[in-house]
Amino acid sequence: MGIQRKDFLVRQFEELGRVIAALLGFRDKGESERALHYATDSLKGMLDNDPDYYLSFSDNEFRKNLQELWKPGIAGMEILSEMLYQLGWIYDDLGKPDVASNCFRKVKITWEVLAEEQGTFNMERNMKQEVLDKYISNHA
Fold first, then answer.
1. Which of 29, 55, 66, 133 is the most buried (most CB within 10 A)?
2. CA neighbor of 32 nearest in space, from 81, 75, 96, 76
3. CA–CA dist 86, 20 (Å, integer)
4. How far apart are CA 32 and CA 92, in angstroms?
């Protein structure tokens, strides 16, 4: 991987960190609608599609698209999974557990595809997955 590519990835993850910090700030202030708009705009800026695009797929279609058509690579999948994770909690704050569950299912699918690609165990992901599994089962 060239230096320019590494610099680009570093900038992407720095931007993701800033976005997550802003989202958490909005949520802490009870400004979930503002967080939703910010997350939507940010996801469009980072991956060229808004959340509704990703959430419109059935779970099987979503998995197939990640495995066969996804162009932004592993870094893009990491960004997508983190943004959908944050969006899930925002939708939960807004009293939309069905949409939150859809976000969380897409997060889990993305993590599964990432695990297939990377072949490594991720402790943080594993801990988050337990929380998501419980949320999804409670809102099924």
1. 66
2. 96
3. 7
4. 9
Q: What amino acid occupies position 100?
A: A
pLDDT digits (tens, 9 = 90+) for 41-74: 999 998 889 899 999 999 999 999 999 888 878 8
Contact yes or no for 109/63 (Cβ under 8 A) = yes
Nearest to 105 by CA among 75, 81, 123: 81
- pLDDT band for position 2 (50/70/90)? low
Please check whether residue 54 is in contact with residue 106, taking contact to mean a CB–CB distance below 8 angstroms.
yes
Q: CB of 82 within 8 A of CB of 88?
A: no
**Domain locations in the chain?**
3-138
